[in-house]
Amino acid sequence: MELTITDANFQELIKGDKPLVVDFWAEWCAPCKMITPFVEELAHKYEGKVAIGKLNVDDNDEVVGRFGVRNIPTILFFKNGKLMDKHVGAAPKSALENKIKALL
Fold first, then answer.
1. Number of C-alpha atoms within 13 angstroms, CB side, residue 56?
2. Which CATH superfamily is domain 3-103 in?
3. Active site residue 45
4. Crossing angle between the packed helical segments 93-103 and 30-45, to the nearest 10 degrees
C-alpha cells in the first residue's frame, strides 16, 4: 500500500524497520503523474518489505528543504534512516525497481 508522507510523519517513517522510498511530487507536475502508476505498483509488490509513499512538495516544505529537492519528480531511497540513493526525473518502472531491490 502506498503511504502519504508528510512533514509530520516523515521522521517516524524514516526510523522504521523497513527501507523507505519517498516520491516527491505535485498535482501540477506532468512527469510526476507519468510515474504514479509505477510507484503504486511497486508499493503493492513490495508491501511488507519496503515502505513506499508520496510526499506533496507544495504541502511539506520541511522535508523538501531538508533534502534540497528542487526538481520533481525526485525519488529518495532510505535504509536504516540513511539516504542510500536518489533519482531525479521520470524513470521507467524497471529502473525504480532495481533501486528498491538494492535496498533489500
1. 7
2. Glutaredoxin (3.40.30.10)
3. no
4. 50
* Cell output for 34: 507519468
In the chain, beta strands by DSSP E: 3-5, 20-25, 51-56, 74-79, 82-88
Compute the 3-state secondary structure of the chain and give helix, strand, coil in percent, each to the nearest 5.
35, 25, 35
- Catalytic option among 21, 22, 29, 100: 29
Element (H, E) at 48: none
Can 32 be counted among the known catalytic residues?
yes
Domain ranges in the chain are 3-103
Q: Is the pLDDT assigned to residue 1 strictly greater than 90?
A: no
pLDDT digits (tens, 9 = 90+) for 51-82: 999 999 999 999 999 999 999 999 999 999 99
Q: What is the pLDDT of residues 35-50, one digit of tens each?
A: 999 999 999 999 999 9
Indicate which residue of 32, 64, 69, 75 is catalytic. Answer: 32
Decide: pTM greater than 0.70: yes
